[in-house]
Amino acid sequence: MSDGSDSDPGGPNEFFDSTAIVESVVIDFELTNLPPKQKFYSFINGKPISSYTKPTGGNFGVAIETDSFGDATGQIVIPSDTVLNFPTGSLELQFGDSNTNFAYSKSFATATFRVSDNLGVLRGEQFLSVSADATRTDTLSLGRSIIGSQIPVDPLFQTFYVDAAAYPFGIFVTSLDLYFYTKSNTFPVSIELRSVQNGRPSTGSAISGSYVRKLPNSVLVPTTPSLGIDSTKNTTFTFKHPIYLKQGQEYAICIMTDTSEYSLFSGTFGTTKYGDTNKVTRISGVGNLFPYNNIGTPNKNTDICFVLNRAKFDTGSVNFELSSKTESITQYFDVLKLRAPRFEIADKNAISFQVKTKEGASFVNYRDLQTDYEIFFNAQKTASAAGDIKLKTFFTNQSPDVSPVIDLESLNTLVYKRVLGSTSSTALSTYYSKTITVDDQQEFTGLSLETLINKPAGTSIKVYCKLLGVGDSNIDLNSWIELPRKIDPNLVETTDKFSYVQDFYQKLSGLSYTSLGITYTSFKAFKIKIEFFSSSTTVAPYISKYIARTV
Which residues pair with 457 in a beta bridge? Predict the structure, then answer.
């Protein structure tokens, strides 16, 4: 006897594809710190996609041209088609000055994105940083740090620590204050936060949301720089959103510009402060100043002057309500699943959800739901107008230093309408197995199927098999043969969606079929088909797994 098993085939009309292809997604992009007034062309994983790219205010297929600062913005469609077929997972988005081959580009920008097939969205930072070689000409002078370089960007790094004793759950930072000694009247300056790996700032991507650029007219310098820092002349770089920094970890401030006209106030341990006779002392949590391009020995005695502003959160509980958008056509559904990427820290905060739906012209009461779990309704729901689905989100927080986080860009509700045939009609939902070949090369005349089934009242399944005998070549050309259900007095109808009981379908001998005028009385391979039936669209049978045995 041999087994052919298939675990967790899923519920009605649920199928899985092992090769997922990216859905088409439109994103905005920003190119920074590239050569000014130059054309660039787009690629994904080395494949040209300029026809899917357009500059802001332009048309698809037009080259992206940088402005006098070396910056450009636009839109790109990550395409889903049978020609490019980009897989889900990590993709490298590339811009180069070669219009034929990215590898030939002398100036270029790259960024890595992650694409999820289950959400159908593209996740990643939409900021592209420059990668190329250049000769350094910058200097570092006492009392202030000169920053900037020839193109491309060659950053200056200042590291810092998140004190685990003071902030046992980490912190959220909202902005960074820098104190400039001099500035350029032409070129912008930008900052970002990076992780520190093996004692050095990461050369990879910035922490999401931390990139901020300032034009010269937004950068403040003291009226009389030689008198020292003017506390009212701080230049604040506000992040796109509060950024979580983990306790006990080291991070780096990365400062970038394309000129040596910018300089920052700094302090060297043991030297005299500007404007008085006091000595510079070290501040807890400040790390090291790294030279340009993260090369060489870090300066452990000199640090730039900066203030990292952290968020302070209210404790307690709060809730807010989200509403669905208007649908172009009325959606009918009886199953709902919530996708809500979220971030909860230790046991100090939590997020929970409730959903309210429309039944006919009226709303029913809110009910609890968990993310990535289906909820089943006892009557069909509708959604067409804005607000027909309402989601209430509850935030609970016990620490002023941290907060739970939910990604609203990726939050969505998936609704399903069951499509099942009645017991007197053709099945509209069917599960098909792969072809199962018996390993021991024997031939068999009987087949049984044991399954765990959740079978509410008014539902049923039917089980069929296709056979392939010795000498036959194509199992898909053969007819389906129904396996009779073994009458089991112990089989009871389930009253909740979590209860499963054993059920058997079998024909232990005499299985045969005819193909092209030849009758086969034994088989060496088989396929399984399971049909799902229900007298109601809101109630369906489910199977959790099955085991097929040849006899």
Answer: none
Phi, psi of 292 (to 5 degrees): -60, 145
- Cα separation, 383 vs 358, in Å, equals 7
314-341 tens-digit pLDDT: 999 999 999 888 877 788 888 888 888 8
Residues paired with residue 357 on neighbouring β-strands, in sequence order: 389
Length of the chain: 551
pTM over 0.70: no
Average pLDDT over residues 392-403: 93
Backbone phi, then psi, for 12, in 5-degree steps? -60, 135
Would you tell me which CATH number, out of the four given (3.90.550, 1.10.10, 2.60.40, 1.20.1250), belongs to the domain 316-416?
2.60.40
Confirm if 506 and 487 have CB atoms less than 8 A apart.
Answer: no
DSSP symbol at 481: E
CATH class of 422-550: mainly beta
Rounded to 5°, the CA angle 496-500-504 comes to 135
- Cis? peptide before 87, omega within 30° of 0: no
Domain with CATH 2.60.120 in the chain: 144-310, 422-550
State the Cα angle at 542 between 539 and 548, rounded to 5°: 150
pLDDT digits (tens, 9 = 90+) for 411-429: 888 888 877 777 666 777 8
Closest CA to 140 of 121, 158, 123, 127: 158
Torsion angle, alpha carbons of 275, 278, 284, 287, to 10? 60
